[in-house]
């Protein structure tokens, strides 16, 4: 049949709460955004895009090899939903399948992306997203009440089924699905498991330091 056009999109607004100018904050000497753009460029996607309202981020994204779509300023506020920006992109760019990859997951690899695309191409899934397996830990609310467990019967970790958590690296869906539902996933959903060691997101300065240390110990530039 006809080739599906696959594009990758990263959202990178100028304002950010945890770290100022987070999307282009230096990580091992390169701007944060360069890692996901690079993974996308090496993967099987046809086009790599960044959506931003910010001139400096636009310039950095283009230097990294991405195409840039101007994001309307009203879609770059703290209250704007990611989905609204995805829909804006879908209304302005031609594609069949969208890999929405988050800037904050610099350890995502081209292989992860390719696995997700392959899963979509089986025709069995309407969307796919990345997960990491989490074993049970006792969670407490901020007013120190146990969440979903009983303090008198503290379970053994082994007796409780592990769960998947969204690690936020990427979400894949079709243009049709996105425009129909306005959501990043829906229908029959598949998952790509990413190991804990590469599952981290950068939202705070502390996480930036942790990831930098991990990358240095893993020899980040060895590819």
Largest sheet, in brief, is: 7 strands, mixed
Measure the end-to-end span: 34 Å
Q: Compute the gyration radius: what is it?
A: 18 Å
Poorly predicted sequence stretches spanning 5 or more consecutive residues: none
Tell me roughly what share of residues is in helical segments: 25-40%
Beta-strand segment tally = 9
What does this structure look like?
The structure is a single chain. The strands form 2 sheets. A 7-stranded mixed β-sheet has the order 5-4-1-6-8-7-9, with helices on both faces. The chain has a two-stranded antiparallel ribbon with strand order 2-3. The radius of gyration is 18 Å and the shape is globular. The protein contains 6 helices and 9 strands, in the order βββαβαβαβαββαβα. It is α/β, with parallel strands linked by helices.
List keywords for this structure.
single chain, 223 residues, alpha/beta, seven-stranded mixed beta sheet, 9 strands, 28% helix, globular
Give a quick summary of the entry.
With 223 residues, this protein is α/β, with parallel strands linked by helices.
Topology readout:
Blueprint: E1 6-11, E2 26-27, E3 30-31, H1 32-42, E4 47-52, H2 55-63, E5 67-70, H3 82-92, E6 97-101, H4 110-121, E7 127-134, E8 163-174, H5 175-181, E9 189-193, H6 205-217
